[in-house]
Amino acid sequence: xxxxxxxxxxxxxxxxxxxxxxxxxxxxxxxxxxxxxxxxxxxxxxxxxxxxxxxxxxxxxxxxxxxxxxxxxxxxxxxxxxxxxxxxxxxxxxxxxxxxxxxxxxxxxxxxxxxxx
Length: 117
Prior knowledge:
Blueprint: H1 14-28, E1 46-51, E2 56-61, H2 74-83, E3 90-95, H3 108-113
Parallel strand pairs: 2-3
Antiparallel strand pairs: 1-2
């Protein structure tokens, strides 16, 4: 955010939002693409996460390739991981392909793991 617009006030305290966000990241890091030894978070497959006032989490994610063999399963894995976080009342993953994923979205940790640094 560029600071020009104030974020909407949330019914959840900022400290709780921060904790849920941190816990979601930890859970996303438990979900691995079976063809790549790196988790979906470090691969940059998680594009957007919104947490509403009731604790429901909307997640936008992509795949490394549209023809990914686990395309039908991986969103469920991510939803299941998100639901494990205390304070999350539910989760829904929306699979998107815009913008397309590229290796540039990977973290340095992922690039190091895959010997791409």
